[in-house]
Structure formats: C-alpha cells, structure tokens
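This follows on from our talk about sequence and fold. Can you supply me with one protein entry, sequence and fold together? Could you add the entry underneath, on a fresh line?
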Amino acid sequence: MNPVVRSTLGKTLGLVETQRGGDTIMHAPGVPPARTDRPRGVAVLRLRGHDVAEYVWEPDLPLSASPRPYLHPVRTLAGVTVTDAAPDSHPHQFGISVAAPDLDGCNFWGGRTFVAGHGPAWLDNHGTQHHQRWLRRTNTELHHTLEWADPRQATLLREQRSITCRPVDETAWSLSVHSRLTNATDRPLPWRTPAALGRVGAGYGGIFWRGPAFAGAAQVLSPDGADVQRVHGQAADWVAVTGRDRDGHSWTTLFTHAEESGARDRWFVRARDYLGVCSSPAWDEPLVLAPGESIDRQVVTVVIDGAVTAATAAELAGTARSAA
C-alpha cells in the first residue's frame, strides 16, 4: 500500500504511527506495536495488545545444548521478564521447554549426562527436537508436531505440543504447555533422571521453567508453606515463586497441573543458586514407554505482576486449572 494512503487510512481509523528500524508501524493508541524485527522461527503470543511471550520453535543452538524449542522471554502484563535463556552457569537451560535428561541413553536436556557410579560427564549423546508442522498458529495458541531424534537422527519420540495463553485478571495471565509424547520405536524407551541413577534429589525433567538470573530475595510458596524443602521432591497442587527485578518490580510465577496424571508427579524446585521449577514424570524410578505408548502432561504457569499470598496462589491455581 502507498505509504501516504496507509497513513491517511490509519489516521482515519484512529491509529497512531511509530517509527521502528526505519519503518512506520500503525497501531492503536496506548497499545505498543508488535515487533517486526524477529527472525523466522519465532512465534509471538499476545494478550491485550502486549507481547507476553516468544516461542523459539526453530532455535539456532549448539548440539551440546540439546537443541529444542523454548519460550523466552516470558513477561508479565506490565512487561517484567520472568525467564532466562542460556545463562553462563547453565547454558543448556532455556526459558520454558520440554526436556529429558536421559531418554534411552540420549540427553535431551543439554550439558553433561549423569552416569551412575561416576557422576556428570560430557558424552556424545545429545538429542534434538525438530519442528515438523504447524496444526494451529495464532496470537494466543500454538499447536505443532515435533520429533525427538537421537545423535544419529533416528526418531525416538513423536510429540504433539500445544501452547495457549489466556487472561486471568488485570494483573495475571496463564500459559498452558500441553505435551503428548509417543514412543516412535519398536522397543521400550526408558526415561530416567539423575535421581534414578543415584544422584539424590535430582529428579528433574519434563516441562521446565528457568527463572531470571536476578530475582532479588526470591521466595517459594506451596500449600505446605514457604520453604523449598517442603515441596521439592513432593507432589502438590501448585508451586509459586515470587521475585523482584533490578528495578524493584515484583513478580510471581505459579505452576499447577491441568490433568490428573500430572498431579501425581513430583516437583523439582531449585532456588539456591538459580531459579528452576519442573513437574517430573519420572523422579527416582524410570518411566518406561512401550512401543506406540503415549504420555500426556500439561502444566499451566500463571504469570503475575506483584507478590501473592498462599491463599491467592491457591485461588489462582484453581482458576487456571478450570480454564485449561
């Protein structure tokens, strides 16, 4: 469209102009324009005119990081970022992703592999998650298929993944990640954690959140109290983490399950040297998928501006589960 005609039409519709990178972007007054400078392979989730999350579905990552799609940055409605990606201490952790530390000997977590009787070791066993095709792609819902391939590019798992965002109230929104994993091989596939191999407490794996590098004096809440040890390695209706960014803005991420099988999973919660939360489908016992067998997991993350009490967290968790 001719720039003059576009400008005249935009003003007739009550839109305003913003200059970005030499381009003129038309948008509603008071609503920030959507970014147009993102590379291919990034999908944007938007609510109430704000970019609340970016989904990197075609990442450019080294093999040692176990390349996989991930959500980062994830933001509150006020624009506070509540995720981190590839931090110096753990360059294989990315925002919110689906990851497995040991799937039939293949590392879909990134970094070192825990070897029973030895400890963490660098192995040439990193797998990759490949996007296959989109089933649905909108500003509030992403649904696509993926394949999990071993280092020789043989497919081990086929996945259907749905990501949905919904408003909760004026200060909160929910992000649902639903993963259905199916054994694509003709043999049983064991999913193991380091805890299953002898590293006590290291039952991580599944839908994993890596919190921001700076979070102030972060606090962990659960139905059993404000203490990491009360919920780490335990099943619980919800887990919440409250932090503060460098400008003093407080935020909360609240995690809950949206389906019955996941509600029995134990939570991995880390708050000592970094912030991390995941609901683990296999804690200290291997989860073995028979050929053609599938598992479903759905975790809803409520992203909140400000700190919350345990009572408010429980109420928001119930609301998020009902809407998922």
Q: What stands out?
A: The first strand starts at residue 16 and ends at 20. The radius of gyration is 20 Å. Confidence is low (pLDDT under 50) at residues 19-27.
